[in-house]
Amino acid sequence: MRQAWRKRIRAVLRIILLRDCTMRTKLLVFSALLIVVPLCVTGLLSYLRSAEVLEKEAQQYSWQIIEQVNTHVGYYVNDFEISLLKIVNDPVINGFTKMGSRDELEGSGMTPAIKQVLRNAAYSRSDISNITVVLEGIRTIDALTNEAADPSNDPHEEDWYSRVGSNYEPKIFPRVVRFNDREEQVITIARRLVSPLTLQPIGMIIIDVNFKRFQEIAERVVVGRTGYLYILDAEGRYVYHPNGAEIGVKAGFENLDLMLLGGSGSLVTASAPKRLLTYAHSPFLGWTLVTSIPYAELLQGNAYIRRTIVTTIVITLAVAAVFGIGFANSLVRPLKRLYGYMRRVESGDFTGHLVVESKDEIGLLTHGFNKMVVRLRNLLDEVYFSKLRETEMQLRQREIELKALQAQINPHFLYNSLDTIRGMALEASQDPISEIASSLARLLRYNLRHSSPKVTLEEEAYYADVYLKIQKYRFEEKLDYVIDLPEWAGKQAMAKFSLQPLVENSIVHGFEPAFGRTRLTITAYRESEQAFVVQIEDTGMGIPEERLADIRAQMKEKDVIADGTHIGLTNVHRRIQYLFGEEYGVTIDSTLEKGTVVRLRLPWTET
Which chemical reaction does it catalyze (predicted)? Predict the structure, then answer.
């Protein structure tokens, strides 16, 4: 179960991390995500924050407008209240309130004076349409009708009349009044009249203000580009609305009850089209002033921000794509070039070299791969040539074995022949011949003995002496030799049959061409703590410089397996190096007509 979950997680991670996609695709996708995601988050937060800020600013702006309108209307209405007080406190009106009946009023003759007071007050301001005084049960008098006639509109019979409170607080409301043959929209300010005798409400004084004046005040209010202001009375009826037909009609929008509670605030309507309503209640007027702004208009600035963010994201994404493609190519192209070169190396092509174009990680990788290819090429060459040398050595080994087998036949044949000669010499009483044959037989026996390739210097000196004795029979007094070896040198190791060939060379190339007596000396001395030298010195003809140089060169280069002349020195030199190491071997010095010195440098061992 756990393994199944792990497999699912790995499969999901493989898809999310684009593990099966090319590096170019990964770079483009991840760079786009790194740019687009932060931009989208930032843009979304900015958009939401800006919408919130714009809404708050619109609310603040609306409240300021409402406050200004409220103050202005308050001052405006307050002026009319002052006018009401002036009228009420007028002696004529005061006398009118003391009338007990219509007959008493008619008998007092005050009606013209009352009308005159009302007309004076009405004419004092151009925005007053009419002023009406109602003395309940007695008479209603206004400023417009004739002195003898009653007003055509008796306020006492209208429904709003009963809603005016009995206290001294005025009530303000809109209504339509008929004057003679026309109707006029007015704002009515009504206030109860109180009897100075009983202090009981006995009537009402009413000022009808021309609605156009009030409308001019409201229309001066500009809320946004298409927003507007309207005013609601305590019952929710429109006191003012840009559409005059709505005045006096009860508002039907949502949350009306919340607005009429007397507070202030704002809300966004849920029904389309959405509108931002900001409202505030005026305690003085008893009205609620409301501003209405289309929510779409409010967010126009926000829409601009949204378009700007989207445009910025698109442009940034395009720029990022261009740079991402360039960056991806700068990474992928060297890797693909390196991959192609790796395929060539994989197929065995070690030629060529990649140009390192940068000093970054890819450049270091390319440089390291070049070094690895060079190293592989060198190793391959070493293995190839080592195999070639091994094959060559095997061929030579077979040739040596063949020659060795052939050489085993010849010495035995010579050995048997020498025994025959020695026997015949003894029968003929030829002791020198018998001795020579015996010495040659010992040399051959020493040569044929398959023992260790190393022997002691003492043993080598013995057989050199045997050889020199043979040559002594030949050269007699012309050859003089001395073998003078220190006691410590006798047990030192050296290559088998290495001293006799050098002695033979001295005789063949030094003594035979010379005239007179020639001396050969074999000695040994310590060269250092690790080596000693066996020296063969003769006083023969010596070797010319050119020939000496050839001999030294042959010792380094000549193939001793191949047939040829003058291979004795080279043979001994190579065998010493094979047995004891490259630092040992044979050296030769010679002076023409004075002699030759051959030195065998050998390792010294404690015996």
Answer: ATP + protein L-histidine = ADP + protein N-phospho-L-histidine
